[in-house]
Amino acid sequence: MRQPIRLLVVSVRFLLVAASGILASLPAFSESLEHCFVGNYHLEDRSDVDISPSVDGTLRWRKFDGTTGALHPQANGTWTSTRGWTKAADGMVVSFAGCDGNAIRFGGIAGTRTDFDVHEITFESHGTRLVGRLVLPRGEAKVPIVVLVHGSEHDSALTSYSLQRMLPAQGIGAFVYDKRGTGKSGGTYTQDYSLLAYDAVAAATTTRSFAGARLGSIGFQGGSQAGWVVPLAASRTAVDFAIVGFGLAVNAIDEDQQSVELQLSEKGYSRGEIRDALKVARAAEKVIASGFSNGFAELDRLRSRYSGARWYKDLRGDYTYLILPRSEAELRIMAPEFDWHTPWNYDPMPVLRSSRTPQLWILGGEDYDAPSRETRKRLQSLIAEGRDYTVAYYKNAEHGITLFEVDATGERISTRYAPGYFQLIRDFALHGTVSGQYGDAELTRPLRHD
């Protein structure tokens, strides 16, 4: 089983599964534990560890070097850790000083929770009340501030986004908000990129107003679906930088096509077999893009033709696999719960070509949910044309820029974030550029930096 919740990550595929009820079955995190222990702690070895709420009564720790694990409560009041999103114990024991304290002992190293200047803020966008939080390092100095933009997740960013603390611990402010239809915000959940971009612009405007004299520079950061939203938002308001993780420079139909191709090619199927699989996927994509209103005859014809093919059992894509086993009647019933106004054929390239905002894109070579090959190629072509883009490519990273193991059943299990991932975000927010080495990331920088 791959990791259930990632930092700022929920792909279209994961989002569709969630809407089918899987996420709804996860128990809510204990409010008391969240209140007591969530925070960013500075340790005596001069590193920081962030503690965030998770599922099934657990906590999640993250360090800036990319290591992470789940914390499980024990009867003696301590917490034991399992590595990444695996079930393997990593030997880490953690204890807290109780609900009235700010102390932690993390793997034998003492630490203290870091205090930030925190402002809870309500603002409006297109008639919808949104709830946000501005988190700043303590002091009076000007700081860059990152507006954290959602992926496609349904959960509350105010609760789940650990960057709202990890960045301030590095001297960078963060504005986090629950997008419409999630958490404490009003409105209806949507995947309308344009509307979400206007919400992000409203968040940036609110940030400028509340940060006042402390605002140095300002920019957007987001992952996955935010790869479509962030550049749109940056085209509508003046910002100093934009950071996209595991996003796409193609549309959502191409996303599924490329996912099918990557998955089947890695399983060793021939080019001819993959071409046939892509035909089936294209028929499924047409059904979902139509709002489950047409395309069923072609889908049925191709399913009947290829259901006996050896590759059919491995045909998944980003969302094709949800369509394949269901009848027309079942799919039509599903239509209302997927009525999210998703612009399936949205072309992001005109916005990317016209951008004058320095942008950092962080991509994973093993990303099944948002395959990066064509996106990387397109971004590199923009760099060759003189655009101000930086691409950091982690060959072995999957969606979320996490590394993984493969278990005996062939399932990926995420183990940690790629080394250098969080440092990339920090340095680009601080300087509008990156320099040096970030783990094994392959960097393509704008021509002006060469």
TrEMBL record:
It comes from Dokdonella soli. The lineage of its organism: Bacteria, Pseudomonadati, Pseudomonadota, Gammaproteobacteria, Lysobacterales. Transmembrane segments: none annotated. It comes from the Bacteria. InterPro entries: AB_hydrolase_Est10 (IPR053145), AB_hydrolase_fold (IPR029058). This is Alpha/beta hydrolase.
